[in-house]
TrEMBL record:
One Gene Ontology term from the biological process aspect of the record: carbohydrate metabolic process
Any GO MF annotation of the entry: hydrolase activity, hydrolyzing N-glycosyl compounds
Highest taxon listed in the record's lineage: Bacteria
Name of the featured protein: DUF1593 domain-containing protein
């Protein structure tokens, strides 16, 4: 049993009490925390990936953040870009095989002991191996066959855990469609069908990256029209192969070779040694069409420039440990982008890019690039740091008044921010209005934007029900520099 010192900021009424705590970490608890099913406060996710290079890189990042999730499944699917073939009539296309997932989990096992010294709740490699299943992979959109992957999804949908089940579609939705089809075939026409429909509609949330087969539109939406869908059709490109066109120049250094080499690629262990970048000389077996690895190709990019994590926004959206509360409402926005209501749920939308002054479809994602890259760099260091003191850790932010307030037009709102740093470093503070997330159509005058405490007056033209979003950023001075946020939503009443 290991002992670590932590700084815990506890909100008691309207006062912040800061105490030093000595907390024992039980290895058995740390191994299984967040993965016990019912009652878990961690987002419960099933990853559905198709084995593309960016899926591989997204999977590596996910493993470093796996303590923040209840990972109920890692399911291999096909897509219009990758399929395995059936050994007879259907030939494989850009098929990267199924063994790389197991190989990555073996390499996760080498950093797992160190990761646990820096944060609780990392799932054991054995547990992750137990939920890795191959789904419908023979052809694009194939959903006729019941597979190990579809059965894992079906059982998770029907189990007794009432928490939301997020199906993260990094590839096609065909294996999820097969799972839902199996449920429909079992219960439609029975006395339980209505209750099953209600359960599925309440529980399942699909975070869809592009449309990588036709099963979402061809089967899921027509047969399960009330399943909630968060549809990322374009924002993901800003963290994928097209990032040079969409990420603002000020944030591009965090995706260029010097940052990647220093922060993620050099001396960070065997798992990150698998991380793919442009022109890095690491081919993807089976995917000969993808030539981005060739040192003499794609000369617009330096060797080791970021290549793509187009699927990471699906779980970055759920990372509420940072305080942005993005999973509470897709319109809030956070590390996984921001969304507007649509006929089937939500679809990616625009923020105003301050560099251009124009609505920018990518900016809800690209505005966070520096923060999320620094955060990943810190976790990369966790994996090779055998001592807690050997790496940087996130500060913690809190607001004495709370994070959901109700105020009348003309009322003065005073906010007292506080921060603590588990590493004992100095902290800086910044407040800003997230106008794109507001339902109030205007800007407030914020006093004390660069101090712990801030205030503003609710505008006289604000209408009942209007919401004003204030973000408090608490930053440390570590290497890399890390942040924690608090989102305060002031509703006009």
């Amino acid at each position: 049993m290991r002992i670590r010192n932590r700084m815990i900021a506890a909100l008691i009424g309207s006062a912040i009490v800061i105490t030093a705590a000595v907390a024992p970490v039980d290895p058995a608890v740390a191994t299984t925390a967040g993965n016990s099913g019912a009652g878990s406060k961690k987002p419960r996710i099933i990853v559905m990936q198709d084995g593309e290079v960016d899926d591989m890189d997204s999977f590596i990042r996910l493993l470093y953040y796996s303590n923040e999730f209840n990972i109920a499944g890692v399911v291999y699917t096909s897509s219009k870009y990758h399929w395995a073939g059936d050994g007879a009539q259907v030939a494989p296309y850009r098929w990267t095989g199924t063994k790389w997932v197991s190989s990555y989990l073996d390499k996760y096992a080498t950093v797992y002991p160190n990761l646990r010294k820096h944060a609780d709740g990392y799932p054991s490699p054995e547990r992750l191996r137990s939920v890795y299943k191959v789904g419908n992979v023979e052809n694009v959109g194939e959903m006729a066959k019941v597979t190990a992957g579809s059965e894992l999804i079906r059982k998770a949908i029907l189990d007794d855990d009432s928490s939301p089940l997020y199906l993260l579609a990094w590839g096609g939705n065909n294996t999820a469609a097969r799972a839902l089809k199996s449920i429909q075939e079992q219960y439609q026409g029975t006395a339980r069908w209505s209750a099953i429909q209600q359960k599925v509609n309440k529980k399942v949330v699909i975070y869809n990256i592009l449309n990588q087969d036709d099963t979402l539109s061809g089967y899921i939406k027509p047969n399960w029209p009330n399943i909630k869908i968060i549809d990322n059709q374009s924002q993901f490109w800003s963290f994928a192969y097209l990032w040079t066109r969409q990420v603002p120049a000020a944030n591009q250094p965090y995706l260029r070779a010097p940052f990647m080499e220093q922060s993620l690629l050099t001396g960070k262990g065997s798992l990150l040694a698998e991380y793919r970048t442009y022109r890095d000389g690491k081919p993807t077996p089976g995917d000969d069409e993808n030539t981005r690895w060739q040192p003499d190709a794609n000369t617009d990019y330096a060797v080791h420039d970021f290549i793509s994590e187009g699927d990471s926004p699906s779980f970055l959206y759920l990372l509420d440990f940072n305080g942005l509360r993005s999973s509470e409402n897709p319109t809030f926005g956070g590390w996984g982008g921001r969304f507007a209501p649509s006929a089937s749920g939500w679809i990616d939308t625009s923020d105003v890019n301050p560099t251009t002054g124009n609505a920018d479809r990518a900016y809800p994602q690209t505005r966070w690039v520096a923060d999320l890259q620094n955060d990943f760099a810190a976790r990369a260091s966790w994996g090779v740091s055998a001592r807690y003191s050997g790496a940087n850790h996130n500060p913690r932010a809190a607001v004495a008044e709370g994070t959901d307030l109700r105020r009348k037009p003309g009322a003065k709102v005073v906010l007292h921010g506080r921060g603590t740093d588990p590493d004992g470093g100095a902290l800086s503070y910044r407040w800003w209005q997230y106008t794109d997330a507001d339902s109030y159509a205007g800007a407030i005058t914020l006093t004390g934007a660069n101090s712990r405490d801030a205030s503003f007056t609710v505008p006289a033209d604000a209408k009942p029900g209007d919401a004003i979003h204030l973000i408090l950023e608490v930053s440390d001075g570590g290497a890399p520099p890390l942040k924690h946020y608090q989102r305060v939503v002031v509703t006009v009443g």
